[in-house]
């Protein structure tokens, strides 16, 4: 029991965040298990490289552990983690851009581990078609400016509200709507051409 | 460039005046296109792209991305190392002194609160301090959130925290402050 008391699975985010800020390792581990896949997923889809995504996710949670006491609204710990992740991703992409003079053509290995993507499990033809659509979307996403890509992923993949996205990326809700709208128009255009 | 800014009279609008975001909402909700949309060439072109995007978006959102297992272990190693550097309280003095970390004692207090009968209490902030000039006596302050309608049994909770601390850590309580907070969601 020395490392931290047992924490039951139904403890709310706010309670876990307050305990973690108090130095409760078990509470922090619960938050880590709750959100590591989503933070890693966002990083992976933002930077398109598993190794870099792993580094980003590690940096996010170690930063969160050290700065948990600064979190003003413990109930919003999920949004706060995304905010740290968003900042890390933009930093990685900026450094990458500064290093290279030639533009990145396409993002490698952004695919998730699961292949059965919901539709038509027993129909290889439709599955292949669905997979091709995702690949086309991945390439289209890679072509967006990072700030638009982030807003689009937070809205469509993570299901955050406009207000939450605004808190994550540090801009107004109106700016988020505008960015999302431009991202969507651009993606729809690429997807139409792909079809 | 059917959907892009170049040809649009106003941003986000098709040349026919329809709003692209409104069309997207239609596609997302699965609603049938209205009369204008099904006959307008601008809208139909836009719909093709939006439908393809909708299908690919659903597939992308359903992909399961799992963090590598080694990642969690690496993060927890850093966290545990840093947590160990925390404050301690004396447990035994003399030639063979022993200390226990305040974080470990706080964890035991939280455990006592969380597992109290009824299951409606959750411990939050917890401060543990040795009572000055003593060895195995503590002052504890703990914030307790109570979910639900019923009035929590605070006397019972006090006794429970005292006995759990004595049993698990061998420490006695001098002062125990309970700050009760009402929880909103169950």
From TrEMBL, chain A:
Q: Which CDD domains match?
A: Sigma70_r4 (cd06171)
Domain RNA polymerase sigma-70 region intervals: 31-97
Recite the UniProt keywords alphabetically. DNA-binding, Sigma factor, Transcription, Transcription regulation
Instruction: State if Nucleotide-binding is listed as a keyword.
Output: no
Species of provenance: Longimycelium tulufanense
Q: Name one GO biological process term.
A: response to stress
Q: Member of which family?
A: Belongs to the sigma-70 factor family. ECF subfamily.
> Which Pfam families does the UniProt entry name for this protein?
Sigma70_r2, Sigma70_r4_2
InterPro entries noted in UniProt: RNA_pol_sigma-70-like (IPR039425), RNA_pol_sigma-70_dom (IPR014284), RNA_pol_sigma70_ECF_CS (IPR000838), RNA_pol_sigma70_r2 (IPR007627), RNA_pol_sigma70_r4_t2 (IPR013249), RNA_pol_sigma_r2 (IPR013325), RNA_pol_sigma_r3/r4-like (IPR013324), WH-like_DNA-bd_sf (IPR036388)
The GO molecular function terms of this record are: DNA binding; sigma factor activity
Q: Which ranges form a coiled coil?
A: none
**Per its record, how is this protein called by name?**
RNA polymerase sigma factor
Task: Please verify whether the record's keywords include Transcription.
Answer: yes
Using the record's annotation, list all stretches that form the RNA polymerase sigma factor 70 region 4 type domain: 135-187
From TrEMBL, chain B:
Q: Which domain of life is it from?
A: Bacteria
What is this protein called in UniProt?
A: Asp23/Gls24 family envelope stress response protein
């Amino acid at each position: 029991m020395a490392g931290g008391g047992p924490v039951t699975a139904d403890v709310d985010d706010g309670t876990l965040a307050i305990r973690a800020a108090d130095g409760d390792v078990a509470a922090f581990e619960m938050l880590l298990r709750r959100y590591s896949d989503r933070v890693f997923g966002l990083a992976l889809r933002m930077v398109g490289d598993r190794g870099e995504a792993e580094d980003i996710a590690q940096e996010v949670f170690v930063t969160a552990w050290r700065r948990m006491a600064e979190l003003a609204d413990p109930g919003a710990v999920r949004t706060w983690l995304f905010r740290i992740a968003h900042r890390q991703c933009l930093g990685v992409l900026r450094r990458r851009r500064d290093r290279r003079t030639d533009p990145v053509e396409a993002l490698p290995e952004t695919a998730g581990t699961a292949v059965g993507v919901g539709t038509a499990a027993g129909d290889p033809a439709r599955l292949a078609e669905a997979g091709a659509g995702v690949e086309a979307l991945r390439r289209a996403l890679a072509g967006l400016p990072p700030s638009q890509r982030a807003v689009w992923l937070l809205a469509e993949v993570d299901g955050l509200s406009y207000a939450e996205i605004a808190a994550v990326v540090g801009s107004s809700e109106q700016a988020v709507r505008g960015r999302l709208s431009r991202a969507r128009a651009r993606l729809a255009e690429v997807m139409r051409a792909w079809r | 460039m059917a959907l892009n800014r170049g040809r649009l009279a106003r941003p986000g609008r098709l040349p026919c005046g329809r709003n692209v975001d409104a069309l997207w909402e239609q596609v997302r909700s699965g609603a049938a296109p209205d009369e204008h949309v099904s006959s307008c060439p601008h809208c139909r072109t836009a719909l093709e792209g939006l439908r393809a995007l909708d299908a690919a978006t659903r597939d992308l959102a359903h992909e399961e991305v799992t963090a590598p297992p080694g990642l969690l272990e690496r993060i927890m190693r850093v966290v545990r190392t840093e947590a160990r550097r925390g404050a301690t309280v004396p447990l035994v003095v003399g030639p063979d002194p022993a200390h226990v970390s305040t974080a470990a004692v706080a964890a035991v207090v939280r455990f006592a609160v969380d597992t109290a009968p009824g299951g409606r209490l959750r411990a939050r902030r917890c401060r543990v301090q040795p009572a000055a000039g003593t060895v195995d006596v503590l002052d504890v302050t703990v914030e307790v959130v109570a979910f639900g309608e019923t009035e929590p049994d605070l006397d019972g909770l006090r006794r429970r925290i005292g006995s759990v601390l004595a049993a698990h850590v061998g420490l006695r309580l001098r002062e125990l402050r309970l700050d009760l907070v009402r929880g909103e969601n169950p």
